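pasting for the record
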Amino acid sequence: MTGRGGADFYGDVTGEYLALRTEAAYVTDWHEIVWVRGPDAVRFLDGLVSQAVAPLEPGAVARSLLLAPQGKLRAPHHLLRGEDEVGLVVDRGVADTAAADLRRFKIRVDVVIEPEERPVVDVWGPLARDVAASLVGAAPGASAWLRTDTDGLAAGVPFPLVGLPRVVLVGVDVDGSAAAGLTRAGRLAADAVRIEAGEPIMGVDIDEGTIPQEGDVVAGAVDFTKGCYLGQELVARIDSRGQVNRHLRGVRIATNVLPPVGAELVVGERVVGAITSLAESLELRAPVGLALVRREVEPGTAVDVRWEGGEAPGHLSGLPLDTFDAA
């Protein structure tokens, strides 16, 4: 089976998982990039996304959000700040949405908006930047990007809640490096690591009905001192005096049973959420998942995980599920 992250695995799920956590491995079909190019690129995006683009130095990477006018999520992303170009690194399947939204507001500005046509490859793990350096001749900073001699790129796009390095590459022969020993990781191992790290995926754990504060994607991605941007009112109002009805939580299953995605989380007889992502964590020795859960149900709460034909005990956790001290 193939999908996000390529195949489920490439021969050895345990080896792939350990490489992602303790060395480096690459994954495919995880991210896409939308480019905004032209003399007005920075000014144009500054009026639309939640991050302050203009103060960033060329070559910087920063987390940001593209929101609907009503303030709900459209495309969480990492910004790649250039001189007359800015890239938006988005989750796979989101590039067309982001490009269409940006084009809708392209009025009297000199920019071209286009998705990157070449494949985007991720390298995750403590040695990710070393691998990038061996591939392109220089390592990007942890939150920085650079162009390669062949007009490709290498960009550090770190996980927001843990110190595990991650580099995205475009126009780089990673398959050649795989032949030389670089591990390729599939969806099963990559999902386990990113769930442990507490990173939601747009269209999977969060969607266009999610308020940014519900998905825990605001810290570091929103500049509350900048001028107006698309969807600002709701985000600012909740930050100053509001609250949301749900929060993204981790779920740890207390038995060695792997519930299906969509399994309900029940406290007493009340359904308080549903599992959106699930994987087996070798580090935590348990199945783990993500879920949007009612705000009154705090981390540490015991839950019954129920699905058609099955049930398992579990408990809620704050994020990240693991701190990746070994990274």
